[in-house]
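Hi support team,

I've been running sequence recovery on a batch of backbones for a student project. Most finish fine, but this one hangs at about 90% for roughly twenty minutes before it completes. I'm not sure whether the input is malformed or the queue is just slow. I've pasted the C-alpha cells below so you can try to reproduce it. Let me know if you need the job ID as well.

Thanks,
M.K.
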C-alpha cells in the first residue's frame, strides 16, 4: 500500500486499498479519508490508519456500523474521540 515507504497513504493509495477491501463507493471512501485524516495533512498516517482498521474490525465483529455512521454524521471530533476511547479500553 505505502509504495513510497513514507508511513502514510495519500488519497489515491487509500482509495485503492479501500476499493479492494470494502464495498464502499468512491464518494464514501473519500468521506472516510477526510474523516480519518484527523490532522488534515492530506494523508492517512499510521495512527489514523490504525484507528480506521480497528473501526472496520468492530463493524465486522460487533455490527456497530449503524451507530458509528450516525455518530460520524453528527460530529467528526466526537466520532474520533469515541473510537479512540473504545479501542484504548478494548
Amino acid at each position: 500500500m505505502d509504495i513510497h515507504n513514507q508511513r502514510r497513504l495519500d488519497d489515491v493509495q487509500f482509495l485503492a486499498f479501500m476499493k479492494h477491501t470494502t464495498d464502499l463507493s468512491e464518494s464514501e471512501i473519500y468521506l472516510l479519508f477526510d474523516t480519518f485524516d484527523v490532522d488534515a495533512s492530506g494523508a492517512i498516517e499510521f495512527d489514523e490508519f490504525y484507528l480506521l482498521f480497528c473501526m472496520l474490525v468492530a463493524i465486522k465483529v460487533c455490527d456497530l456500523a449503524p451507530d458509528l455512521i450516525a455518530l460520524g454524521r453528527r460530529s467528526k471530533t466526537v466520532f474520533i474521540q469515541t473510537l479512540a476511547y473504545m479501542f484504548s479500553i478494548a
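--
Follow-up from support: It reproduced on our side and the slowdown came from queue contention, not your input. The chain has five helices and two strands. No action needed from you.
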